[in-house]
Structure formats: structure tokens, C-alpha cells
Q: What sequence folds into this?
């Protein structure tokens, strides 16, 4: 019998039928959350990172049934009232997006970091991105964008 | 910098927001696998577990019986025409030595069968039910084994073409001899010789190869592909499947990185055949392990460089010998090997005597292909290691040695003409070169004068600095062709249609900026669309650092024609001669100040008077390939107890002419350097005695993550390339060539050992250090 699980995806409750052994990644993509990317299927690249009850996880490493009853947040839910999340805007402004395939996972890790460390050092940002592989950027502008977001959220002006 | 005034630009030279940034940062479904096509079949592959074998029998009956299996392809029911998977200009300089499926397998990972099924799980389960009986053949698992007398012959089939000497496993040979190399050495005060061996490495785009196929309502085959070469993909699929070219359409949506590995036609043929045979949509995605062992790699090479110089350091002779391992198929075999010399030797044009002796061999190992840097990467490791050794022998500062030998504006090299891509090259004179500036800035940033030779110690950590210099190219002269179409809309906006293939580089944005600059509009008024063989004009594709220069010039030419058409319409509206009109700020203006808006022009042209679609298509082929230049400096720390190498600081200073979009250009250098640092320190495909890739995952094949890297400092110097669009040259590849020699030279400065086998893992560094202690 196929298990049915309850997921709150980006604030909307859904009842989702899953296949046995299916991962959260597969369920989320089938539910239309295409920002969640399959890069390795072994938990090494972070392209599938989502917030599960507020903490970043690699959704390819989470069985869908293990997420039953939990909150899942993906990049699809970041925009509000037509405005980008400040970290999305910072990524755009810093020129941190090249191919963009790893970008959703980087955003998830960055948001997870600032949620418990609102004023990180550059090294702490790099450490927080340690599970997200990007082959395009060298991480320079992504780190800058997360630091800029932290400053903005602290109410400072960057100017 | 030479005395001159650089042109002022409105849109070019500014870090405009990427045209696709919004879609990407919000996770919109813009990649191949993001479109759920109803009823799509899923394709899985059976690959060879043996490095060299003949398929005696293949029994698919158990697999076919599995519910949900729709089609199984093997060598017994697929086209047999030989071709090359390399997406290159036609006719390709790579041999036609591959088949869709062959009765002979030549490496662990070679394609044996494909299963199309209702789900991926069923397809994978069916793969395991295919029974294959192999007759083992002796395998060739190294360069030396390939060249040994009596070595097993890997391509003895009689229908392969374009192989130099198949009986000797030799795919291609290039020999160039300028001046008198031996006389040059005889007349040299100092001669050094070094042999470097580089490893198997993989591109590792985070998005693997993926192709979605379907039939359109007229029954034409549509392939949505993560490709760098949509037009080559269309041509090759048409040839292999024997379909008329006009029955095939290839669409490139957003691409999750390529770095050369998506210049290869690896899935399009199979997806195309499944969809044609079944009439159903089909999807194939390489798994991460398949991406490593079954797609393409950077050719491993052995490169020997011998240099002779006078007491003043000026080179008399440069001798380079290359043996490249292309693995089981000759994809890019000739051209990557040629580039080892053609992209490196002109840099040191002071040497009157130059010899290049290159050879590519087959082995029963993973297949080489195009990889960012394209041979220059392997060549510069050996050349710049040898230059550092020469500086040591001469007792000269390595920076000074480079200054005395590198090419300058107004100079040429016989190598430009001697080595091309499968044919003679093109003579050219360097018209922009700010290498001196690059060296000055880099040396200052790293603190060269204070740190070189200082041998600073910090506990067990020994610090050192190293440097290297580089050139690349901007497209393949006289081969790469790009076209662009621009049409004007009734609101004064424009559609820019380009075959150029943005694979994450930002080329859609910078090509839009070039059009916007010429047409006097902000970038937002240029709607950029790439690339679709039905909708956009031809472009050879995104490789060889061609897009900014070759496609950029095509866009510039198209925009200039459109601008002239606009001025003609405005001339009638303003009753002024077109020659006296100026376009800018979305208006056409007369010297008196009177003006019309582009919207006025668009509305009149489309709806009112002398109605006409304002628009143009222009093409460009580079008459030359102006090289970007780069000076690279690094400070490293070497743990003398563990052999670990840490990069403390990395500075890369580049001359790419006018950077069309500085943030994007910096991003290219930063990313290329990061990739090059991985290649230098950690990335190595480990091949077993049986020819199997032992580490085909991101857990075991270590590409750099953020904590592994210093803050890479990418600096762009002021420069202007007169033949480039708005003064630009290309920039995407050059940065990847720099880390390996720069780091090797820095390790030497730190601990006095030369590492000539890559990558510089703790084991290799420690072995080298212990070698010194034993010898010392």
C-alpha cells in the first residue's frame, strides 16, 4: 500500500501519496517544487537542500515518510508580495548566479545560517556552504551576497 | 598602459543584472528536467563492466518480459553508422570511431544497451535482467601499454575513418619544427628539461547530461537538451539516425554548467531513437556515477618541455613533446593535443627555435573530451614548471624571466599559423596585450618581492609563493561561425535571437548588452532568446572561448544594420539626412535637439508609412583569435608533517579587453580558478587495474567547496582589443590553466620540491619531501 503523508510545503498543507522508499526530493519535485535539484543522489552536492522544520537538509537523503507532518520550505516560497527575499536580491545584485543550478540549495543554506547566526564572519558563511557544491562561481560572490544580506537584515546600510 | 582614450559606453562595461537571474534565483522550472512531459518514457543504460571485450551474445528476453518495459536498444537493432560524439565544426577533426551501440566494448562504461520503460525504476530493473556473454580481449590501460610493440589494437574495425594509425593505437600526430632547435640548445647558456604527467579529471557540472525528446504535432523530433552545441547536436542526430535534418529540432533551455563535457553528443541519439520508434516522449539523465565513468574527461597527458636560454634569460629554443591519452574513443583527440602547443608556445615568442611533437593514443580507459582550457591546461603546467626551473638555474627572478620572453603588442609567433584545429592555423599579430600590467598588479597584491624565497615557517607549515602567466584564444579563427538576428518591435524594444549557447556563463546577458549599446537602449529593452535550431540563426556553439568574441561580433554587426535601418526611417520622419542623426537614450536625435522616440519609429515602420519589419541577421567568422592574457600568483602553505597544501591567497589578473559585464567576467575567472585549484590539489579519477573508475561520486572525487578555497581575487585590467566587439576578448577558459603550475611553483618556493605528477595530494607531497630527505 502506498503511504500518504502530510506535508506543509511553503505554508500550504498537502496530503501527498508516496511510493515506498521514495525520497523527499522525489516527492517535492513531483509536487512541482522544481527548485529542488537532483545533482548527485548521495547527499554530497546540496542542490536538493530544503528547510525541514526550519533546518537545512539534503532532501535526497530524507525518506519522504520521515517528513510526515513536517514543514518543508523551498525557494518557491521565498518571494513575498512580488518581492524577492533579500538574499535572492543580494545574489542577483552580487552577480552570484551563473548557471543557477546550485543557487536554490545555496539560498537554503544561507537562510538556515542567518536564522541562527545573524552576524556571521566570512569563514562562518563559507563553512555553512560547505555542503553545497558550485562548479561555476568559486563561491566569492555567493559569500558576498550572504554577508550583504546579514548586514541588510541587521538594519545597516551597505553604502 | 599605452596612451589612448578608451571609448565610453552606456551599457557595455557595466555589471548589468543577468537577464536570466530572476528566473534562476526563484527556482523557476527552466532546466531540461523541470518540464513534466506527460507520458514520457525513462531511459536507463547498461554499460560494459569490462575494459575490452566482444559481445558474443546479448539476451534481452528477461528484460523485455518485465511489465513496463517498452523498448530495448542494443547493437543488434540500432544504426551502425560510425560517427564522432564530439560537437565540432563540420567536417570534424575527430575520427569517426564510435557507434550508437557496438558489438565490441572498449572501456568500462561503454554503452551496451538502453532500456526505455514507464518509470526509471523499471528501466533500471530491466537493465539488470539483460544477459550479456562477453569474450574478453586484452586491455590497454596506460599510454605506455598503448604504444608498446604488439599492443592490442583498440580500433581495428574497417569502417572507422580519420584515425592516423589505428594499428599502433595512434589517433593523431602533429609535428611542427621552426628554426633549428638543436642549434638553439647548443647555443644556450642554460638548458632545463622537465616531464609532467597529468591525471584523469572530470568536469562535474552540477546538472548532469539530460535530454528530453518528444514529437511535435507534425511528427518532427524535438530534443530539449542540456547542450553547448545545439546545431552540432541536430546535425549529428540527423546523420546517426538517418533522419532529414529538417525533421529534427534541438532546443537548449537553461543549462546547469557544461565546461566542455556538454560539447558532446551523448544522449541525444538514444533519446531521439526511442522517441522515433515508440512515438512517445522520452527522457534520459546520466546518474552522477555515469557522469564520471561514462561521459567525458580531461585527457591525461605526459608533456615533456625542454628550454634553452642565454645568460640574459631570453629563450633560444623551446621543445615540447606531448602524448595524450584519449581513452577508448578519439573525441577531440587531435585538437586538444594540438592546443597543448598552439595555445602555449606563442606566449614565449622570443625563442626563434620551436619544436612541437604531439601524439594522441587510444587506451581502454575513460574517454577524453573537450574540457575548459582544452589542452592548454596540461601544456601550461609543463611549460610554466619548466620556466620556473629555468629561472632557478639562471638565478633569475621567475617574474623577470617571464617579462623578458612574453609576447607583446605588434608581435606574432610562427605557431599561430603552424598549428590549427585539424588544419593549418591562421597567422595573426597581437593587437592587445596588457600582460605587463597583469604581472605588476599580481606581484604587488601577493607581496612577491617580500615573500619569494623567504621560506617563512609557521610550526610545521612552510609558506611559499609561485606564479605563472598564460594566454588562450577567442574562438577558432577561420572555423567558428556565429549569427545573430535582431528585430524591432512596435514599442521600440527588440528581440535578439542567437544560436550562441548560454550554459551559465552569462552570454545571453553580455550579447544583449552589446545589442543595447549599439541601439541606444537599456538592456531591459532587448529580449534575448537562445538557442533553438528552429528559431535562432546558426552558431557553432559555446566552446573555445568563442561566444564573447565571435558571437559578440555577430550581434554587433546585426545591431549596426538595425540601427542604420532605424536611422533611415527616422530620417524620413525628421526630414534630416540619416548621417546627421544620432541614436541614444531610446531616441533618434538631430543636432538641433529635435528627436523621435524609438517607439515612434517602430510604430511608423510596422503600422503607418512605408511599412517594413526593421530587422537584420548578421554573421561573423573570426579572421583571428585574439588571446586574452592572465598573470596568476598564489601563496601556499605546505604542512611538512602531513603533506597537505593550503592555498593562503590567490590572485588572478586578466586582460580580456573591455569586459562587457565586469561581474560576469570576474565570475568566469573566479570559477575557472576554483576549478583549477581542484584539478591541482584533489581531483583525480582513480582507475583500477581493471580499468574501472573507483571513485565516481562527489564523496570520493573531491571538487572544491567554499571552505576549501581562499577568497579568489580576480582582477581585470584596462585593455582594448581593436577587433573585438566594443573592445572585448573572451575570458571563460584561461583561468583554469593557472592554478596547477602556480601552485606547483609555490610549493617549490615553500619546501624546495618539484611536483610533476598531479594532483598534489598530501601523499604525493609527502613522498616528494621524503625523497629530498633521503637524497639529502
A:
Amino acid at each position: 500500500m502506498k503511504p500518504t503523508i502530510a506535508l506543509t510545503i511553503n505554508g500550504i498543507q498537502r496530503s501527498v501519496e508516496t511510493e515506498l522508499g521514495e525520497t523527499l526530493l522525489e516527492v517535492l519535485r513531483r509536487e512541482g517544487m522544481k527548485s529542488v535539484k537532483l545533482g548527485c543522489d548521495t547527499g554530497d552536492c546540496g542542490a536538493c537542500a530544503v528547510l525541514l522544520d526550519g533546518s537545512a537538509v539534503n532532501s535526497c537523503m530524507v525518506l519522504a515518510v520521515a517528513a510526515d507532518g513536517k514543514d518543508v520550505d523551498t525557494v518557491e516560497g521565498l518571494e513575498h508580495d512580488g518581492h524577492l527575499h533579500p538574499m535572492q536580491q543580494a545574489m542577483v545584485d552580487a552577480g552570484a548566479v551563473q548557471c543557477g543550478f546550485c543557487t536554490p540549495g545555496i539560498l537554503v543554506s544561507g537562510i538556515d545560517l542567518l536564522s541562527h547566526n545573524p552576524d556571521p564572519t566570512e569563514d562562518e558563511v563559507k563553512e555553512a556552504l560547505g555542503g553545497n557544491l558550485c562548479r561555476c562561481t568559486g563561491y566569492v560572490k555567493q559569500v558576498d551576497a550572504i554577508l550583504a544580506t546579514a548586514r541588510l537584515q541587521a538594519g545597516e546600510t551597505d553604502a | 598602459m599605452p596612451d589612448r582614450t578608451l571609448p565610453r559606453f552606456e551599457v557595455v562595461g557595466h555589471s548589468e543584472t543577468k537577464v536570466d537571474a530572476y528566473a534562476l534565483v526563484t527556482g523557476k522550472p527552466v532546466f531540461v528536467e523541470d518540464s513534466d512531459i506527460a507520458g514520457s518514457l525513462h531511459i536507463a543504460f547498461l554499460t560494459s563492466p569490462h575494459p575490452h571485450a566482444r559481445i558474443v551474445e546479448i539476451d534481452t528476453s528477461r528484460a523485455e518480459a518485465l511489465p513496463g518495459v517498452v523498448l530495448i536498444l542494443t547493437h543488434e537493432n540500432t544504426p551502425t553508422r560510425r560517427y564522432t560524439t564530439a560537437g565540432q565544426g563540420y567536417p570534424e577533426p575527430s575520427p569517426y570511431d564510435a557507434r550508437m551501440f557496438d558489438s565490441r566494448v572498449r572501456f568500462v562504461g561503454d554503452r551496451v544497451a538502453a532500456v526505455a520503460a514507464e518509470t526509471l525504476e523499471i528501466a533500471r530493473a530491466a537493465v539488470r535482467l539483460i544477459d550479456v556473454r562477453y569474450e574478453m580481449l586484452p586491455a590497454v590501460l596506460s599510454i605506455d601499454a598503448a604504444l608498446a610493440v604488439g599492443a592490442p589494437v583498440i580500433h581495428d574495425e574497417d569502417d572507422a575513418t580519420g584515425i592516423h594509425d589505428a594499428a599502433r593505437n595512434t589517433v593523431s600526430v602533429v609535428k611542427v619544427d621552426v628554426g633549428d632547435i638543436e642549434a638553439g640548445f647548443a647555443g644556450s647558456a642554460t638548458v632545463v628539461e622537465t616531464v609532467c604527467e597529468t591525471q584523469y579529471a572530470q568536469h562535474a557540472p552540477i546538472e548532469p547530461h539530460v535530454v528530453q525528446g518528444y514529437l511535435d504535432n507534425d511528427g518532427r523530433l524535438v530534443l530539449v537538451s542540456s547542450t553547448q552545441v545545439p546545431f552540432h547536436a541536430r546535425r549529428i542526430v540527423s546523420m546517426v539516425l538517418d533522419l532529414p535534418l529538417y525533421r529534427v529540432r534541438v532546443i537548449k533551455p537553461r543549462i546547469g554548467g557544461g565546461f566542455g563535457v556538454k560539447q558532446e553528443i551523448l544522449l541525444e541519439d538514444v533519446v531521439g531513437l526511442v522517441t522515433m520508434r515508440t512515438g512517445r516522449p522520452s527522457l534520459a539523465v546520466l546518474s552522477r556515477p555515469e557522469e564520471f565513468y561514462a561521459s567525458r574527461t580531461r585527457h591525461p597527458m605526459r608533456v615533456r618541455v625542454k628550454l634553452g636560454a642565454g645568460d640574459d634569460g631570453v629563450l633560444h629554443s623551446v621543445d615540447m613533446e606531448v602524448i595524450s591519452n584519449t581513452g577508448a574513443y578519439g573525441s577531440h583527440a587531435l585538437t586538444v593535443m594540438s592546443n597543448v602547443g598552439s595555445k602555449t608556445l606563442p606566449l614565449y615568442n622570443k625563442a626563434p627555435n620551436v619544436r612541437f611533437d604531439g601524439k594522441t593514443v587510444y587506451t581502454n580507459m575513460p574517454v577524453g573530451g573537450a574540457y575548459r582550457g582544452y589542452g592548454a591546461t596540461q601544456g601550461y603546467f609543463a611549460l610554466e614548471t619548466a620556466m620556473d626551473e629555468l629561472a632557478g638555474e639562471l638565478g633569475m627572478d621567475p617574474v623577470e624571466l617571464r617579462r623578458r620572453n612574453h609576447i607583446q603588442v605588434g608581435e606574432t609567433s610562427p605557431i599561430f599559423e603552424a598549428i590549427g584545429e585539424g588544419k593549418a592555423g591562421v597567422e595573426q599579430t597581437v593587437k592587445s596585450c596588457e600582460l605587463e600590467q597583469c604581472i605588476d598588479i599580481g606581484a604587488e597584491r601577493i607581496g612577491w618581492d617580500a615573500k619569494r624565497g623567504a621560506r617563512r615557517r609557521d610550526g610545521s607549515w612552510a609558506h611559499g609563493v609561485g606564479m605563472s602567466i598564460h594566454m588562450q584564444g577567442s574562438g577558432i579563427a577561420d572555423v567558428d561561425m556565429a549569427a545573430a538576428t535582431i528585430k524591432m518591435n512596435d514599442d521600440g524594444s527588440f528581440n535578439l535571437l542567437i544560436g550562441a549557447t548560454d550554459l551559465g556563463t552569462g552570454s545571453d546577458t553580455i550579447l544583449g548588452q552589446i545589442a543595447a549599446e549599439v541601439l541606444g537602449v537599456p538592456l531591459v529593452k532587448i529580449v534575448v532568446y537562445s538557442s533553438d535550431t528552429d528559431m535562432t540563426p546558426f552558431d557553432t556553439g559555446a566552446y573555445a572561448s568563442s561566444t564573447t568574441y565571435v558571437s559578440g561580433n555577430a550581434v554587433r554587426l546585426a545591431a549596426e544594420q538595425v540601427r542604420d535601418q532605424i536611422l533611415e526611417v527616422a530620417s524620413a520622419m525628421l526630414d534630416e539626412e540619416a548621417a546627421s542623426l544620432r541614436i541614444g537614450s531610446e531616441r533618434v536625435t538631430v543636432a538641433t535637439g529635435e528627436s523621435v522616440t524609438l517607439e515612434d519609429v517602430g510604430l511608423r515602420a510596422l503600422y503607418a508609412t512605408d511599412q517594413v519589419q526593421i530587422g537584420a541577421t548578421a554573421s561573423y567568422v573570426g579572421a583571428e583569435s585574439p588571446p586574452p592574457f592572465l598573470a596568476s600568483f598564489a601563496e601556499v602553505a605546505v604542512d611538512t608533517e602531513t603533506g597537505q597544501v593550503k592555498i593562503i591567497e590567490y590572485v588572478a589578473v586578466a586582460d580580456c579587453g573591455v569586459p562587457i559585464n565586469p561581474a560576469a567576467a570576474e565570475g568566469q575567472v573566479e570559477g575557472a580558478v576554483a576549478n583549477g585549484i581542484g584539478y591541482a590539489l584533489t581531483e583525480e579519477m582513480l582507475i583500477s587495474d581493471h580499468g574501472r573508475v573507483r571513485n565516481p561520486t562527489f564523496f570520493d572525487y573531491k571538487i572544491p567547496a567554499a571552505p576549501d578555497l581562499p577568497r579568489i581575487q580576480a582582477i581585470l585590467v584596462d585593455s582594448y582589443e581593436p577587433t573585438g566587439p566594443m573592445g572585448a576578448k573572451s575570458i571563460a577558459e584561461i583561468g583554469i590553466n593557472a592554478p596547477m603550475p602556480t601552485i606547483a611553483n609555490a610549493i617549490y618556493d615553500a619546501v624546495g620540491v618539484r611536483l610533476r605528477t598531479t594532483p598534489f595530494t598530501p601523499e604525493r607531497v609527502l613522498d616528494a619531501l621524503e625523497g629530498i630527505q633521503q637524497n639529502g
Remarks:
- Chain B touches chain A through 57 residues (CB under 8 Å).
- The longest strand of chain B covers residues 315-327.
- Residues 32-137+203-293 of chain B form a domain with the Aldehyde Oxidoreductase; domain 3 fold (CATH 3.90.1170.50).
